[in-house]
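FAQ: What does the model actually see?

It sees only this:
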Amino acid sequence: TLLISLPMAHGPDTGTLGADTAPSYSYVLSPDGEAISQQGSTTAGLLPQPGRTGEVVAVVPAAMLSWQRAPLPQGVGPSSPRLRAVLEGMLEEHLLDDPAQLHFALQPDATHIAAGEPVWIACCPRAWLREHLQHLESAGRAVARVVPSHAPGEPSLDGAQLLISGSPEWPQAVVYGTGPHDAVLVLPLSRDTVPLLPTLDADSAVHAEPAVASTAEQLLLRPVRLYPQ
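And it is asked to produce this:
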């Protein structure tokens, strides 16, 4: 299986691919979904090919997603032709972007949730996703599945999980594992946003990618555990 992280631009302007843009994709190749046989970062045409029975999986960064939670009306399920129109109407007042510019995806087990019960809806820029998928397909790496890097779900046994990622110029805090009804929280990490992060116990682990480990320790005033990208 080839897992590819879709890149986002540094800073708040995510943009789309330009005519002469050749983005670099971080990837891992796994023989069994657990071990890593190869990893690196390269352009689409130089990515390794999965095996005959493998697949290409695209991973959407947490900062590119908005998580919404809402109940689906009776008779509107994941396969309903009305689903798109219903989601646009339901979420219009909760989104900063025009719903027509966004791609929506329901949580995987949405078909088993009773009508009227809330479901998680992931939202990301439609043009950004489409252009990367088309770019990979044209390079012979057609994507079979698109998954989020982090998703809402059951609370972690160790409480809230805090991951610091990004670059020294644009560090980001990702909070997840707080509870089944809590979305994934993504904030730019600075002295102004540290008070907005959940209160962590003294023994709670804070993970940070190597590039931002020292920045995280300076801002959070506590040691961090390295978390390879």
